[in-house]
Amino acid sequence: VTHTEGGESIDGEDSVRRVVLDQLRTWHGSQDHPVQLGEVEEHIIAMSAEFGHARLLYDPHQAAGTAQNLRSRGVIADPFLFTTSSVGRLGLGLSQAIRNQRVAIWHDAALVKELLSVQLKETGPGQFRLTHTASGHDDMAVTLAMAVVTQLESLGGSPAKQHLESIAPIHSCGMPNLREATVCSKCNEPL
């Protein structure tokens, strides 16, 4: 669960200073003791109510059934599609938000350890993603990135949105590109 904290006024428009992480809950299961999805759903319902009907972002390839159950109980649940473009936006957006102090988290040892272990890797011309070691994880980092980037992108023409696009201009095809690029790395059209 995250929210935005407003910043100082710039040219009469309120800017967003940062995205604040309010809560991040994880469940750990095994073959012998799988995660109880009903418990997860009840927690999401409670958090949605507690945080003013907060919107849930979910991976439709992993949680379509859960999302359907949650919607039937009044939770706003929107799919987040993991594409080359969106994965790039997540990696670049989280990296820049942390670097520019646009995200605030509490000191949770597991979250901090994971954020320190993930790296932003260029996987192709203008294509980025968060990576981790073979024994590492990036679930919490990706979850945080989904919230941070989605909230910053939802600000429309705000300074935060302009900042994200100045880091990695997004072409009309949806591909984020390097700041110095003159043509899109996906479709080769001019930026």
**What average pLDDT do the residues reach?**
83
What percent strand? 15-25%
User: What is the H/E order?
Assistant: EEHEHEHEHEEHH
Number of helices: 6
Q: Assign a percent range to the helix content.
A: 25-40%
Strands across the major sheet, in which order? 1-2-5
In total, how many beta strands? 7
- Main beta sheet: strand number and arrangement? 3 strands, mixed
Assign the structural class, choosing from mainly alpha, mainly beta, alpha/beta, alpha+beta, or little secondary structure.
Answer: alpha/beta
Report the principal-axis shape: globular
Radius of gyration using CA atoms only: 18 Å
Note the gap between the termini. Answer: 35 Å
Weakly predicted, low-confidence segments: none
Blueprint (SSEs and pairs):
Elements: E1 2-10, E2 13-21, H1 37-50, E3 56-58, H2 60-72, E4 77-79, H3 84-99, E5 103-104, H4 109-117, E6 119-124, E7 127-131, H5 139-153, H6 159-167
Parallel strand pairs: 2-5, 3-4
Antiparallel strand pairs: 1-2, 6-7
Helix pairs in contact: 3-5
